[in-house]
Fold this sequence. Notes:
By secondary structure, this protein is an alpha/beta fold.
Amino acid sequence: MAIPAEHATGEQDSFRLGNREFRSRLLVGTGKYKDFDETGAAITASGAEIVTVAIRRTNIGQDPGEPNLLDYLSPDRYTILPNTAGCFTAEDAVRTCRLARELLDGHTLVKLEVLGDQKTLFPDITATLEATETLVRDGFEVMVYTNDDPIIAKRLEDMGCVSVMPLAAPIGSGLGIRNPYNILTIVENASVPILVDAGVGTASDAAIAMELGCDGVLMNTAIAGARDPVLMASAMKKAVEAGREAFLAGRIPRKRFASASSPLDGTFF
Length: 269
């Protein structure tokens, strides 16, 4: 018997990206750790099933003389999500995705980001739309990083993206969700998974994203930059799970005045 979505928790509560199904709603990056051993330990603690890799910055086979991340994070255990971090043009992003497809034996699930400038790392939306059109036409399953504009988010979905990933705040800023109502509007209008990407600083930020109804959260700096990355990864895992359960449970309405847990009506004296 199928479990209704409003009661689904744990292993029964999964979501789909393209043709793949996942249980963990925490996606994690692999940059900024002190070494690959710490990377592996933190990702294990996170419980993540999807691990994103910056193809332009991380060796996954393109440099045989350097340590290979895949020796520490096996593609048999994790879904490797190549990303185009560091790309500032549509052409570079498309080229990077095609390189990843070759390195990963035809892998088509990619995270697209095309940045606008070095200082803010905000997305260049015009270039993002251009790259999206090319990659979708080329058979890629595109998970796209964008700003928190509901109109652009819907347009990217309509172009064929398998997931839309609005920023919570600038990349690596740790500022948390700056525009929760924008994120909520994106979620309410979407028919593909919405994953908050960028800006998460601590566990409560991840929980808020999930309470808004997001399907997942992707983070890197919030874990890798913590004083204890492995412990923070564990905290983020719990926060995402708690936020998801709170969303499914349904919060009480906000009220201006008190509402007694034990009403006086019907008391004995």
